[in-house]
Predict the structure of PorZ N-terminal beta-propeller domain-containing protein.
Amino acid sequence: MKYILTLFFLCPIFVFAQDFSDNWEDLFSYNQIQDLAYGNGKVFAAAQNAVFTYQRNSGEVEKISSINGLSGENISSIHYSSGYNLLIVGYENGLIDIYDSNEKKVLKVIDIFEKQTIPPPEKRINHFYEYNDRLLISTDFGISEYNLANREFGDTYFIGDGGSRLKVNQITVYQNFIYAATEENGIKFAGINNPNLIDFNVWQTISSGTFLGVVSLANSLYAVDENNNLQRLQQNSLISEIQFEQSVRDLRVSDDRLVVGLVNRVRVYDQVLNPVASVGKPSGVNVNYTSALIFLDEIFIGDNQAGLLKTTTTNPFNFNYLSPDGPLRNDVFDLESIPNELWVTYGDYDLFFNPYNPGLKSFGVSHFLENIGWSNIPYSQLNARSIAKATINPNQTDQVFLSSFFDGLIELQNEEVVARYDALNSSFESVEDPNAPSVINDVRVNGAAFDREGNLWGNASRVEKGLFKLDVENNQLQTFDVTSAVPDPIGDNLGFTELVIDSGNNIFFGSYSSGIVGYNPSTNTFVTVQGEEVGNLPDNYVTALTFDNNNQLWVGTLRGLRVLFNPAGVFTDPNLQTNEIIIRDDDGVAQELLAEISILAITVDGNNNKWVATNAGAFYLSANGQETIYQFTKSNSPLPSNTITDISIDENSGKVYIGTDKGLLAFNGTATSSQETLENVRAFPNPVRPNYSGMVTIDGLMENANVKITDIEGNLVYEEVSQGGSIQWDTRAFGKHKVASGVYMVLITSADQLETKVTKIMVIR
């Protein structure tokens, strides 16, 4: 069998990745460093799913991510080949990306990832070691060779007993032998030039047990075992040299010195194990070191929370933080934006509204300001766990309320905590949770929104008084009993979700098992829309709600999408139903839009089009849902995951923030909110150059403005009425042939015909 496996790798399988930098922006977190490499004057730091470089001489930082063609998967190891000027990125799922620093291109190598005879959990890339033109790859199944000159795989070595798969943590070459640190099988070694390395019988064993790493330095070979014991090879046996007091996280030779990374220490030794430097941690910072290297007197440390740190051998108590500006984390739970501003929360609770699975999240929140950057507010400042949502006061945007799915409601003013509302100081009720019977202040706030009078409304899960209103001027909290609509909110209904408010100040929020819950404040009346037969919901688990520009309620559920065309009617008509959207496929067959797909969020842009976040990617739909304008997935975009947790839009710029469980990106959308005048109308790009194949956007429009585009002689080539603040033109004459080179007049008239505006677009073919 091993010969068949070897033959597979003789045929390289690779594809060139696409660059998405024209339309997308990387907003990943670079705080969780997995591995480091050095070469060509640069430190290469691998975060969870992206890499950045730090130029030692200039301090310049450059990001390399899925925007540039990386896969966006979880990185497990990196290596830089100075001879070939290549960055090699290995992933937990067996993928390998090769980034050419000269051409700025990514080659995706999928041989290991697609190998069917190796179980997916055993494809992890653990380490790269370059020897001559060969790249020796340590994996969870054994060792693979990759030829850097030919860009193709060579042999694969299964070195376990009887040729079985064996996890290899690290490889080195010492005195013409390959040494492999393995899991439970000690140190395996064989001659580097042995033509029969695919034969497990040629691999000999030193010692036993699990070895975390093995390196060669000058005339010595060192290995570290699972007991954190550094050992040196002497006459084909290992002798103990240093017993470390902490778990060894990283062992490498860097700049002809031995670097040992511990949990919160880094030790550097010379070629005969004399101490060179001992580095602790920054004062007042919790660290979890993953990797470290040294060049001259500079020590670079990768941390799983604080990012890339730099210190020196002469002053190891002084640290510089080098990671690019970005959010705290990549596992986005919720997004909330206003013009030029974005808030990110990391939650969370599971499918059954359990915040304890696997444990209460203590992550803090992130705040982004255009032209300023990121401000990350840590958990230590908030002292609130499982923060599910941020709600911005539209009348006072520096006032933000955080919904904690355990610690109640937290009020921020200019990013500082100014008030808390929980079961100990307000009318909130505490949850009686069998998972935590001793907790007396468990308040699970989730969906929240401001009404037109400036009151904050929100829901609290697993209590009878599951709806609240906060008078933010007087700090008065009022709660409402929901049992008339949800008879058992403590038992059957495990949680409430999104909360939205219509133009008449009626409240609507989603639930785990009771469908849509509506509340009319003027009559103090609760109603529900639920069930397949009564409410035409595909599932009573309502995950997302949003009102569009026509005051229609779009409803996302665990198993599909619905629209409630007359939401206020539910308070007078108990038989009012939601409606599915019926579209026709390419063969003209009628079908339901997004049937059986789990909807995670719905967002409306300035043109009344809909962005829908699902577990199958991001969908951009026309205003009525009949046309899918875009469907973004991992395969056709830089999204690192098909699980889209939330989408939010900056109404001024049209920028679309897309959050996933593996990172945040921004898509350069063009739909903006409508304007009060036509004063700021613009067309872009302008001029339209020969190599441009996209759409021309005209924004700064009033709602329902009439836009006519004519040639210089007055012949009409395009006409449209804006739904929001922008329209797009494909530079064709009514969708047919492309217009010729020339100047085109854009004639804009407001809906009431009281305002007009004229601008020009130059087209160059």
Notes: Residues 682-763 form a domain with the Immunoglobulin-like fold (CATH 2.60.40.3110).
